[in-house]
Specification:
The protein has 6 helices and 7 strands. It is α+β, with helices and mostly antiparallel strands. The protein has a domain at 17-53 and 83-151: 2-Layer Sandwich (rbstp2171), CATH 3.30.2220.30. The strands form 3 sheets. It has a 3-stranded antiparallel β-sheet. Strands 3-6 form a two-stranded antiparallel ribbon. Strands 4-5 form a two-stranded antiparallel ribbon.
Length: 157
């Protein structure tokens, strides 16, 4: 490979987040009775990583007597991640329409925390599962094959 020009990696489309349209769950219809189209933004990996980092916490570990555990002269930390809340935050950030951060929508549902909004707007397990699977599939966090297997498994139950 003789030509090692970095311009091949400088793509304008990589700077922009694409928006995809998918049908909303069947209960969400417009005035004509047609299913509303949701708009989902394909977040970049760095945005997803930042959201995941928001829901990580580190606490120093203690032994049974309440003393901090030290190993090789450094305190030992336990890292915990609230992946459920992180996933809901990712759903909120990825959904362009409906905008779950909209103050009027949040006020309607009586929410102050955006991570509660997916549960309020899509209170049914099937609806929430459908929306989260579509978003995670678009973001590349869930394989389409995994999605199909999950739907078959859900149908069995």
């Amino acid at each position: 490979m003789a030509n090692k020009n970095l311009k091949y990696f400088m793509r304008e489309e990589s700077k922009q987040e694409q928006i995809f349209q998918v049908p909303a769950p069947p209960r969400f219809v417009d005035e004509k009775g047609e299913v509303v189209q949701m708009e989902i933004k394909k977040l970049h990996n760095d945005a997803i990583a930042r959201i995941n980092d928001l829901y990580k916490s580190r606490t120093p570990m203690k032994d049974r007597k309440g003393n901090y555990i030290v190993q090789n002269g450094e305190a030992v930390f336990m890292t915990e991640k609230n992946s459920v809340k992180a996933t809901r935050h990712i759903i909120v950030e990825a959904l362009v329409y409906p905008d779950l951060k909209d103050p009027d929508l949040m006020n309607f549902y009586g929410c102050v925390d955006i991570t509660d909004m997916p549960l309020k707007v899509f209170p049914d397990n099937e609806e929430y599962g459908y929306v989260s699977r579509k978003i995670l599939e678009i973001l590349g966090l869930m394989d389409a094959a995994e999605n199909n297997e999950q739907e078959v498994e859900d149908a069995k139950n």
